[in-house]
């Protein structure tokens, strides 16, 4: 087996999410989970957060054209057999991510991250509709917690 063949045998996944400076969620947690399961992880960061185990102190969104460029650059070069989404932050980022998922046609798991464990909103209220109308129909699996499920369905 050549080194290229060995590289092709390693499963790859793309996480599209926010960065958690505390390392307990977001891109950092996804990449740790991928690695623990023998999956090579690539990422596209949608927002940078300043947070710890107690609170989210600040959030800076990444411009949607940069999100799209991250997705396309890693998929063009490294590829991925699956995509997992997390914190998408705004309706514009949701729309951009949906456009790239449709263009690439890669099976997608949606974690509709809306509220941090400390109670901070991580998805703009106007983006909930975009997640419901645009993102969920593109997904293979959706993994909301009970608060997110209630927000998406209107059922407590």
Task: Please explain how this structure is put together.
With 156 residues, this protein is of the alpha/beta class. Helix content is 40%, strand content 23%. It contains 6 helices and 6 strands, in the order H-E-H-E-E-H-E-H-E-H-E-H. It has helices at 3-9, 26-36, 64-77, 91-104, 127-135, 146-153; strands spanning 12-20, 40-51, 56-61, 82-85, 108-110, 141-142. The chain has a 6-stranded mixed sheet with strand order 3-2-1-4-5-6, sandwiched between helices. Helix 4 links the parallel strand 4 and strand 5 (108-110). The longest helix has 14 residues, at 64-77. The protein is globular and about 45 Å long. The chain starts with a helix and ends with a helix. The model has no long low-confidence stretch (mean pLDDT 92).
Rough shape?
A: globular
SSE order, one letter for each helix or strand:
HEHEEHEHEHEH
**Main sheet makeup:** 6 strands, mixed
Distance between the termini: 54 Å
Rounded mean pLDDT is 92
Q: Tell me the Rg in angstroms.
A: 15 Å
Helix content: 40-55%
Uncertain spans, ≥5 residues at pLDDT below 50? Answer: none
Determine the number of helices (DSSP H or I, runs of at least 4 residues).
Answer: 6
Structural class of the helices, strands and pairings? alpha/beta
Task: Estimate what percentage of residues fall within beta strands.
Answer: 15-25%
Main β-sheet, spatial strand arrangement: 3-2-1-4-5-6
Number of DSSP strand runs = 6
List the helices and strands and how they pair.
Blueprint: H1 3-9, E1 12-20, H2 26-36, E2 40-51, E3 56-61, H3 64-77, E4 82-85, H4 91-104, E5 108-110, H5 127-135, E6 141-142, H6 146-153
């Amino acid at each position: 087996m050549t080194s290229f063949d060995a590289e092709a045998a390693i499963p790859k996944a793309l996480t599209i999410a926010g960065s958690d400076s505390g390392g307990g969620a977001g891109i950092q947690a996804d990449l740790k989970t991928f690695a623990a399961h023998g999956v090579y992880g690539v990422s596209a960061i949608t927002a940078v957060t300043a947070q710890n185990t107690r609170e989210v102190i600040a959030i800076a969104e990444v411009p949607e054209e940069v999100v799209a460029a991250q997705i396309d650059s890693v998929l063009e070069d490294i590829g991925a057999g699956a995509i997992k989404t997390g914190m998408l932050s705004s309706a514009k980022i949701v729309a951009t991510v949906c456009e790239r998922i449709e263009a690439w046609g890669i099976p997608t798991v949606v974690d509709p991250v809306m509220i941090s464990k400390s109670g901070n909103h991580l998805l703009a209220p106007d983006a909930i509709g975009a997640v419901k109308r645009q993102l969920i129909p593109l997904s293979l699996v959706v993994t909301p917690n009970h608060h997110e499920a209630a927000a998406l369905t209107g059922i407590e």
